From TrEMBL:
<feature type="transmembrane region" description="Helical">
    <location>
        <begin position="389"/>
        <end position="407"/>
    </location>
</feature>
<feature type="transmembrane region" description="Helical">
    <location>
        <begin position="305"/>
        <end position="325"/>
    </location>
</feature>
<keyword id="KW-0472">Membrane</keyword>
<dbReference type="Pfam" id="PF09997">
    <property type="entry name" value="DUF2238"/>
</dbReference>
<feature type="transmembrane region" description="Helical">
    <location>
        <begin position="41"/>
        <end position="59"/>
    </location>
</feature>
<dbReference type="InterPro" id="IPR014509">
    <property type="entry name" value="YjdF-like"/>
</dbReference>
<feature type="transmembrane region" description="Helical">
    <location>
        <begin position="227"/>
        <end position="245"/>
    </location>
</feature>
<protein>
    <submittedName>
        <fullName>Uncharacterized protein</fullName>
    </submittedName>
</protein>
<feature type="transmembrane region" description="Helical">
    <location>
        <begin position="337"/>
        <end position="357"/>
    </location>
</feature>
<feature type="transmembrane region" description="Helical">
    <location>
        <begin position="251"/>
        <end position="268"/>
    </location>
</feature>
<feature type="transmembrane region" description="Helical">
    <location>
        <begin position="66"/>
        <end position="85"/>
    </location>
</feature>
<feature type="transmembrane region" description="Helical">
    <location>
        <begin position="91"/>
        <end position="109"/>
    </location>
</feature>
<feature type="transmembrane region" description="Helical">
    <location>
        <begin position="16"/>
        <end position="35"/>
    </location>
</feature>
<keyword id="KW-0812">Transmembrane</keyword>
<feature type="transmembrane region" description="Helical">
    <location>
        <begin position="280"/>
        <end position="299"/>
    </location>
</feature>
<feature type="transmembrane region" description="Helical">
    <location>
        <begin position="159"/>
        <end position="177"/>
    </location>
</feature>
<keyword id="KW-1133">Transmembrane helix</keyword>
Length: 426
């Protein structure tokens, strides 16, 4: 049997020796970082060691280790950071190194679970994991700065450079790994048989058929729900009218986009028969209404409005991510996610989407600064960006843990429609 990256979990003695030697170097450097108060080096080392311990703990033997190539590459940014001349360079090296940790996590999912990922999905997974790891480090560092009164993260521009480095490195790592894996003809990037783990691939059906809809959970009648939806839409239309009268391009762009989104569920229900119940439509309309209010007036005057709208907006992203994940699982033979992993994948989807969104806002700010044009989206500093990430994560976790059953009927209808359209044929 040829050796592939996931087959390293078989317990090859030479692989284990080399891999654990690399992890020992990480642990030593991390200990020195803890003693000297170097936050980013410590976070990197703790993350690497934690990820490396997973296969050994899961399979109950130190012979089960990550591929030595991956752990060795993970040492490089940490050692480079130690000898780097200044803090910004050290941080950039470590955040780019998040890609190696994302790659290790992807390999562990393949080696220890029934996960099956098509190659392009695996590349996307490494990219999203890298962005999510970097965002998590940034939130922890920011919290440490608040508590200790330090300035490890000095500015929003610095944070965005770190998030961009992690995201780009994640994409590069995913693509390079895909190219590397092509050296093993006939081998797919799927779960390899591991000692103690049976090789079986199966779909687990969620027992959610009898779960009440969101509309049934609401303490008001369907008529009141429809009236509330109409009122909120009229409110968004009024904000659009204000923007037109005041020649406020930001208000016009945001209100028009939010009004269109509020009607999207109705359009999809009428055009494709998708079961958007009144509760789902109200949920979407409330979210876009609050965002429109913020864009027209509140965002520039009150920081707490962001903290309200971002977790709510993240619930929409989480719902979209869940539909995409279920659809891929249903219609691509090369893609399978065990049910128990879906909440975690949804949370990563939301967190990484927040990173990519903030990168987009940062780019628009750069365009605005260079051209003098007013952009519909902008950032308001380090605190704003970090709290956006924090509350995005909160919204994603809420949906991942408690909201998925309310999306089951809609998701089933979408997968049926996709089958009718033969989107994935061939």
């Amino acid at each position: 049997m040829s050796r592939t990256p996931t087959r390293a979990f078989h317990g090859e003695r030479s692989n284990a020796y080399l891999s654990w030697a690399a992890i020992a170097v990480v642990a030593i450097v991390g200990t020195g970082a803890a003693l000297e108060g170097r936050v980013h080096e410590l976070l990197f080392a703790v993350t690497v060691v934690t990820v490396a311990l997973v296969p050994a703990i899961e399979l109950g033997t130190t012979r089960a280790a990550l591929p030595w190539e991956v752990t060795t590459v993970a040492v490089v940014p940490l050692v480079a950071a130690v000898i780097a001349p200044d803090l910004p360079t050290r941080q950039l090296l470590l955040y780019a190194g998040a890609a190696t940790i994302a790659l290790a996590l992807t390999l562990e999912l393949h080696g220890l679970t029934e996960v099956r990922l098509e190659r392009w999905v695996a590349v996307a997974a490494v990219t999203m994991l890298s962005a999510s790891i970097a965002a998590t480090w940034a939130m922890v560092t920011w919290a440490q700065d608040l508590v200790a009164g330090t300035d490890v993260l000095e500015s929003n521009a610095e944070l965005m450079r770190l998030l961009i480095a992690a995201s780009v490195a994640g994409l590069v790592a995913g693509v390079c790994f895909d190219r590397y894996y092509r050296k093993f003809p006939g081998e797919e990037l799927v779960s390899a048989p591991v000692d103690g783990i049976e090789e079986q691939v199966f779909a687990v059906e969620a027992d959610l058929d009898d779960h009440p809809s969101l509309e049934e959970r609401l303490p008001v009648s369907g008529r009141v729900t429809r009236l509330a939806i109409l009122t909120l839409r009229l409110g968004i239309a009024a904000m659009l009218a204000y923007g037109l009268v005041a020649f406020d391009t930001g208000a016009i762009t945001n209100a028009a986009a939010m009004l269109a989104v509020s009607f999207l569920p109705t359009l999809l229900r009428r055009r494709y028969g998708l079961p958007f119940d009144g509760g789902l439509v109200l949920w979407i309309t409330v979210v876009v209404f609050l965002h429109a209010v913020g864009s027209v007036y509140v965002y520039e005057r009150s920081f707490w409005w962001h903290n309200l709208t971002h977790p709510l907006s993240a619930t929409l992203v989480a719902g979209t991510g869940y539909v995409v994940i279920r659809t891929l699982d249903e219609h691509r033979d090369e893609v399978h996610l065990p049910l128990e992993l879906v909440p975690g994948v949804v949370a990563v989807f939301v967190l990484s989407f927040g990173v990519f969104w903030d990168i987009g806002e940062f780019a628009l700010d750069a365009v605005a600064a260079g051209t003098g044009l007013e952009m519909p989206l902008s950032q308001y500093g380090l605190h704003d960006t970090i709290t956006d990430l924090l509350f995005n994560t909160l919204g994603g976790v809420v949906v991942a843990l408690w909201g998925l059953p309310y999306l089951t009927d809609l998701t089933d209808a979408v997968t049926d429609r996709v089958e009718d359209w033969r989107v994935f044929d061939g």
